[in-house]
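Note to self: keep these together.
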Amino acid sequence: ANFRNRAFFPDYAGLPDEQNIDPTFYRRGNGLRYTPQKNWCFFAEIVSIEYFTRLVLTVKSGHRSNVRIAFYTDDEGRQVQRQAQVGYTIAIMHANQHYFLDGTTGVRVEVPITVQIIPMTMAELLALNDRVQKYSPQMGDGETTCHGCDAQKTSMQKCGRCSMFYYCDKNCQTAAWNGKGHKNDCKIIKNCGLRAMFSLDWSHFDGYLGFPL
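Structure:
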């Protein structure tokens, strides 16, 4: 998976409209029932956090910096509120564009496990994605590139924590851990379930997904 792929990681403008069946996202099953034909995840960066009767986040996505995410979960979003911070990225599985009663549009969250807060900005998340595309052999063309020195070899050591990055030896691993930011990347990949997100077959829908994937 590549988080820059808009087919599976659309910005707000690319999300399906809940009032219209989008055939690129949904297919017709038995009778009049429609189900997703693929998986998708909406990423956006948190701009502001409000809580009155429920948690409401304002996020920026694509060219829009005022997308509203409102929580209609049993706890009105309190669990997410404890993790959310301005500048962090929110991930929402199978998000749709929703029309609120006040005439605004945004995303309505009803199931808490569809939401994950990732403690980095969107720019940082996409930069991490680019590193995974380059250094994780599952994502590339079969060649393994050392994250420490950029050498390409057929046999390398795998990071024991995140299993996404490979190294020539301990020296290269230490160099990447201290000098290339892998200390923080590794923690986020492991704690936020990003390894599963990178490994998931997004083109195949086999039931609704929640975090941790």
